[in-house]
Design brief:
- The longest helix has 51 residues.
- By secondary structure, this protein is of the alpha+beta class.
- The chain is elongated.
- It has 7 helices and 10 strands.
- The chain folds into 3 domains: 62 residues, no CATH class; 110 residues, Tetrahydropterin Synthase, Chain A (2-Layer Sandwich); 37 residues, no CATH class.
- Strand 2 and strand 3 form a beta hairpin.
- A 3-stranded antiparallel β-sheet has the order 3-2-5. Strands 6-7-8 form a 3-stranded antiparallel β-sheet.
Length: 275
């Protein structure tokens, strides 16, 4: 019984090697960047970090297999910080702050080159804490707890933003979520605010009473002035004229009466009725 030998095509091993090399090459050079992210290109043999050109955006990219891409999340991110700071008189204040931030996409290469990928810990948190300590240190616990909270929030944002602008990071907002004072200080402030409110209410009551008294005085003076003017205007001639007019009206009445001309006081007619 004869056996047959199976002969491989002479070029098959070469083809297989090329296919394997091609697969490896594609796997090393093809890159897909997800939504909300961007990539920094590092050229191993071409000068390192690419800082002059824009970062690689979302989608599919082909890069040389010896180069690397470092991805960053370029969407707005949130940082929540709980820190202890000192007021202007040296009292401990517990501050809860939220910061909204994102890397500057057009300077992503510089961010990677200068600060690396852990910029949250090395740049943002220290800047936020420094700004918060600086701002809160200008105010008393009473101001922080009541009237100056919005001002403090705005100042922390402004100072942190200045620090981060030169660090290739964009700060969108800072929110002071909560301020916690030592219990004894908080109680003292609340009692003081309550007393001030009661005093304002008492002042309002006094002012209201004073205004009412003033109104009554002005009203009385007005009536007195009106009566004085009326009295001064009622001369004897006017009174006689008014009396004559009243007599005429009575004379027109259907009721029976007797009118005696010139017999009344001041020479006015005297009217005698049958009743």
């Amino acid at each position: 019984m004869s056996t047959q030998k199976f002969n491989f095509p002479k070029g098959l091993p070469v083809i297989i090697i090329l296919v394997v090399v091609g697969i490896i090459f594609v796997s090393k050079t093809a890159l897909t960047i997800d939504a909300g992210k961007a990539g920094v290109l590092f050229k191993t043999f071409g000068g390192g970090v690419e800082t002059e050109k824009p970062a690689l955006g979302e989608g599919f990219h082909i890069i040389a297999p010896w180069n690397k891409v470092y991805e960053y999340d370029v969407r707005q991110q949130e940082l929540f910080e709980k820190m202890k700071v000192l007021s202007s008189n040296g009292l401990d204040i517990l501050l809860e702050v939220t910061a909204w931030y994102k890397p500057q996409t057009d300077k992503l290469g510089l961010l990677y080159q200068k600060k690396g990928q852990n910029y949250l810990e090395t740049v943002i948190k220290p800047s936020l804490r420094s700004a918060a300590r600086s701002v809160v240190g200008r105010y008393t616990p009473e101001q922080i707890y009541s009237s100056k909270r919005d001002v403090i929030q705005s100042e922390i944002f402004d100072e942190t933003k200045k620090l981060l602008e030169s660090q290739y990071i964009q700060l969108n907002n800072v929110l002071v979520r909560d301020v916690t004072l030592p219990p004894t200080i908080k109680t003292a402030i609340e009692n003081k605010l309550k007393q001030e409110q009661e005093f304002l209410e008492y002042e309002f009551t006094i002012q209201k009473a004073q205004k009412e008294a003033e109104r009554q005085r002005i009203d009385a003076e007005g009536k007195a002035a009106a009566n004085r003017i009326l009295n001064e205007s009622l001369s004897d001639k006017i009174l006689k004229e008014k009396g004559i007019q009243a007599t005429v009206e009575l004379a027109k009445s259907p009721n029976s009466k007797v009118i005696v001309i010139g017999s009344g006081k001041e020479g006015l007619p005297l009217i005698l009725g049958n009743q």
